[in-house]
Write a structure and sequence with these properties.
Elements: H1 2-41, H2 60-69, H3 79-96
Length: 97
């Protein structure tokens, strides 16, 4: 058993080192491919500019709501009136039937 291990251990070390070299080469190739794609499309990160129409005191959420709904946002229906309408609709249908 010891003699077999003496032959296998150097082979395993050689195989591991060869695998590490191959993986390093593959990762370099993938990185080069990504850089080539970026160069091809000339992707650039532009500095973000704040819009002058929006005041700086607004938090991001308020800016989004204002942009979507504007200044005139109708108040939500009250829960009481919603329930009242549902019940009144049922009673009128039952009375007609």
């Amino acid at each position: 058993m010891d003699t077999l291990l003496q032959y296998i251990k150097p082979w395993m070390q050689w195989s591991i080192s060869k695998s590490k070299v191959r993986m390093k080469w593959m990762m370099e190739q993938k990185a080069q491919a990504v850089h080539q794609r970026l160069d091809a499309f000339e992707l650039r990160v532009l500095p973000q500019r704040l819009s002058q129409s929006l005041p700086l005191r607004h938090p991001v959420d308020e800016v989004v709501i204002t942009a979507l709904f504007g200044d005139d946002m109708p108040p939500p229906d009250s829960l009481r009136s919603t329930r009242k309408n549902l019940h009144s609709g049922r009673t009128s249908n039952d009375a007609q039937a």
